[in-house]
């Protein structure tokens, strides 16, 4: 059956109706603020003397197709109404802020430039960063204090795969005013940045070997509804292993009779949920949605155990933030942190 056209006032629809729209039917283009950001990236590449023509298009998420000089940008950044929906569904908007968006664009540009000049085939590139043929893992265990990798995107993303290490190093090298020589002085990662500087000088002003604007999974071909998209995305970032918080929760809360008049632990956690979730996300780089699932489990377990506050609210707030951070890092180290970019 032929689906009805998207109404002209689609942006004014409530979330429940908006979620029923197919993604391919959304009338979206790269324009306004988003276009300004892609143009900013082009100017940075031009200033660096990199002649590769990077193509941008809308898709479901951020990525650079293998072998292509194209960057897929998530559809929600193309319209403020969809930014609001993304935040409502996922609790945050990846790339929604200017600096965050530019960090991701520079990272993805690293992949595109790698493809444009076929740098991954160079022996020294493989020596410095490792082989691009290494299989992508479903998860990775980062070493937060390692100085062998640059710090650009959250969650120590450079450590996830040699290609991501290359793209992250490129992004740091490209960022205006990054002062990477000073910032990474004495770090093993400085050798990677020095190589990046040398290899980019070697291609400066040269015609790329590849100009491939191929679009993989462009938005116009994604026939899923927004509801289906977010159901899959939330599952992707959910918590997929059993959690047992009893011992940790009982350090802050108690079911002893003398605390029967105090606020329940569940009520307290709900009260501080949003602020604590944001703090832990900033500290760890883990998606707020993932952290929120850990909080949800803690709330449910606190209700099952009939726990109540056993310390002052201020102490409980501070110690719960530490507890949540530890549990989130356990989630990351257990393999629950999935790759995405």
Question: What does the secondary structure layout of this molecule look like, with pairings?
Answer:
Blueprint: H1 15-18, H2 32-47, E1 55-59, E2 70-74, H3 80-90, H4 98-116, H5 123-129, H6 162-174, H7 180-183, H8 189-203, H9 226-236, H10 246-249, E3 253-254, H11 265-284, H12 288-305, E4 308-309, H13 313-336
Parallel strand pairs: 1-2
Antiparallel strand pairs: 3-4
Helix pairs in contact: 2-4, 4-6, 6-8, 11-12, 11-13
CATH secondary-structure class of the largest domain: Alpha Beta
Strand share of the residues? under 5%
Biggest sheet details: 2 strands, parallel
Distance between the termini: 36 Å
Q: Structural class of the secondary structure composition? A: mainly alpha
Contiguous helical run count: 13
Poorly predicted regions: 335-341
Strand order within the widest beta sheet: 1-2
The count of β-strands is 4
Look up the CATH topology of the largest domain. Answer: Collagenase (Catalytic Domain)
**Bulk shape:** globular
- CATH architecture of the largest domain, please? 3-Layer(aba) Sandwich
Helical content band: 40-55%
What is the number of domains? 2
The Cα radius of gyration reads 23 Å
- Overall pLDDT metric: 92
Strand and helix order: HHEEHHHHHHHHEHHEH
